[in-house]
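Technical note accompanying the year-one report. For the benefit of new consortium partners, we illustrate the data format agreed upon in the data management plan: each record pairs a sequence with a structure-token string. No post-processing was applied to the example shown here.
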Amino acid sequence: MMRTLYAEWLKYRRTAVPWLVIMCPAVVASICCIYVHRLQPTAWASVLNFGNEVWSGLWIPIGWGLIAGLAGEIEASAGRWRSLRTTESAPGLLYIAKAFVLAFFALVSCVCLWGLLLISGRVLGIPYPMPIATFAICMWGDWLGGLPWLWTALWLAEGSHWSVPLGVGAIGSVAASIMGGATGLGNNIWPFIPWTWSMRLVYWIYAALTPELQSAAPNLTIWPVLIAAVILSIMMLLLGTWWFHRRDVV
């Protein structure tokens, strides 16, 4: 398994994927710094709110769909797995390795984003103590909420064309922006729209860990969503692996 993971890792060294993973968080944090500065922020909530809206509402649906699409396009341009399927490695293992590597890239991008948001808050001179632990937990919730979509996008990319997860992600971005924001719109239906999970999870985690906002944390709603994100991630990985194992390579 480790050899398969390492081989999968090597595929991306000279592609656009590592650049997207590093540069996009930097762009989002830079825009956040410029935008929030104009609002004369007095709390870390200003940084979190803008960063979460851009990252979870735009980048995770579209950007992670793009990364999955690029991963599928790499295999398409290299012969659609024909050479790799002739090796001793089980086909399902190859698919799982790709899914794990993409999940790692997604995690790295979230680490960069939330770390840079902390730096942005310090650059803006926000007087309150840096909520390092809170932002770290928000990072994990952000990643976990987007994982079902990432592995769904990989399945779409491998089964069709790289543009399909990108297009579906664009639709998801609209849904996340409308239903996942801090406004009341979508309060009753957002748990049924996976693209909104990342944004809502971040808002809930921040509210639950910030004393003055704890009364706003919807305890009865969010835990089923966390469990659903884990279960759906596992389901999409297993279903994609099963499909790939049975797939005919032509």
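Partners are asked to follow this layout when depositing records. The mean pLDDT is 83.
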